[in-house]
Each structure stands twice: as structure tokens, then as C-alpha cells.
Amino acid sequence: MGPNFVDINWLAVLAAAVSAFLLGGIWYGPLFKHAWCREAGIDPEAKPKSHPATVFGTAFAAALVAAAAFAVILRPDPPLFIALHAGFLTGLAYVAMSFGINYAFAGRSLKLWLIDGGYHTLQFTLYGLILGLWH
């Protein structure tokens, strides 16, 4: 019988979700805020349409679900290289390329795709790093 949710290292999953949240704060903050806002057609000084707690709560819940699902795919105790490799490929080949399809049809810019796709590639690579190290 294969691993189940009991076999998952939930502290590592939580740490992975937190890492995505912290990465997003840096990535969409000081690194790429102005470029992302310009490419997305958003005024960086405009008041948010939703309450920040709703936005951040939704983002964290999504990161937690993604980290948990990735942990299930990796199975317990993955070798670090395999976890990193799987994280990088998941972020780049599945997430970023899916964004690429949507962005192509929506007529969004290459720069916006590089920012968003780059974030998710690093997000899942971090997941692999944390889940590969923390057994």
C-alpha cells in the first residue's frame, strides 16, 4: 500500500507554503512590483479591490494545497536531487507553460509571463528543496 496523507511531513508542507508566501512578497514586492503592475495594467498605488486579508489568505491557502499535493507526488523521504528536479520541472513545465498558453490567448506580454512563470518555477523548486531536505 502506498503512502497516504498520514505519511506526509506536514511541518515541511507548512514550511514550503510559507516559503512561497515569503518568495511572493520579495518577488512581487521589491524585485518586480513596478514591472508586474505595468505589464498587468494595474496602478501600483491604487487601493486594492479586495481586503488584503482575503487576498493573502487565499494566496496562502493555495500555496498550502499546492505544497501538500506536491508532497504527495514526491512521496515520503524523496532524495534531494529528485525533489529539486521535480520541483523545478513542475514549476517550469506544468505551471509556467500553462500560464504561457493562457497568456498567449489573452495577449499578455512576454515580460509578464516571465515574471509570473519565474515565480512559480522558483516556488516549486523551493518546495522540492524543503521537502527533499526535511524528512
Describe this structure in words.
This protein has 135 residues and is an all-alpha fold. The chain has one domain (5-133). The protein is 77% helix and 0% strand. It is built from 5 helices and no strands. The protein has helices at residues 10-31, 33-40, 52-74, 80-106, 110-133. It is globular and about 45 Å long. The two termini are 20 Å apart. 26% of the residues are buried. The mean pLDDT is 94.
Relevant terms:
135 residues; mainly alpha; 5 helices; membrane; DUF1761
Give the percentage of residues in beta strands: under 5%
Q: What is the helical fraction, as a range of percent?
A: over 70%
Outline: globular
The overall pLDDT, averaged over residues, is 94
Order of helices and strands: HHHHH
Number of helices: 5
The largest pleated sheet is described as: none
Overall number of strands: 0
Which structural class best describes the helix and strand composition? mainly alpha
In total, how many domains does the architecture comprise? 1
The low-confidence parts are: none
Report the C-alpha radius of gyration, rounded: 16 Å
Distance between the termini: 20 Å
Offer a quick outline of the entry:
The protein is mainly alpha-helical. Helix content is 77%, strand content 0%. It has helices at 10-31, 33-40, 52-74, 80-106, 110-133.
Give the topology, please.
Layout: H1 10-31, H2 33-40, H3 52-74, H4 80-106, H5 110-133
Helix pairs in contact: 1-3, 1-5, 2-5, 3-5, 4-5
